[in-house]
Specification:
single chain; mainly alpha; 5 helices; transmembrane; membrane; sodium transport; cell membrane
Length: 133
């Protein structure tokens, strides 16, 4: 629990000038969608290709219904995303950096929550028989 709080405190995101309209900014939306859709799609496509080309195989008892929510959680890309955004918007107005960090925080949070609850739904409950999927 302390790591997300530490990361948020050190993100440098000032919420004083933010409003609900900040979530509709193209920078915020683009980063959120990149984390929530782009990264999972990329992870899934490359994982699927690796399995089909026999470069990798799924572990015993693991199916795509467990891989998909894990791929969604790949959208929790906080540290490198903040670093890249700081480089990308270094010479831009300060609001761009704030919108980027807002998109990173929001996209990472949604990716974490969606992935967690999806994975909790598809994993066998404690004490159930674990059969190969």
């Amino acid at each position: 629990m302390i790591l997300p709080v530490f990361a948020f405190a050190n993100a440098g995101l000032s919420l004083t000038n933010m409003s609900l309209e900040s979530f509709a900014e193209p920078i915020t939306l683009g980063i959120m969608m990149g984390l929530m859709l782009g990264k999972p799609i990329g992870v899934l496509l490359f994982s699927y290709a690796a399995v089909k080309l026999k470069l990798a195989e799924l572990p015993p008892g693991i199916g795509w219904n467990q891989i998909i929510p894990v791929a969604v959680m790949c959208g929790i890309g906080f540290t490198m995303s903040v670093f890249i955004a700081s480089l990308a918007f270094e010479h831009s107005p300060a609001a761009y950096g704030d919108y980027a960090r807002l998109g990173i925080l929001t996209g990472s949070l949604f990716a974490a929550l969606i992935g967690y609850f999806w994975l909790a739904k598809v994993l066998p409950k404690t004490g159930e028989n674990h059969e190969t999927i």
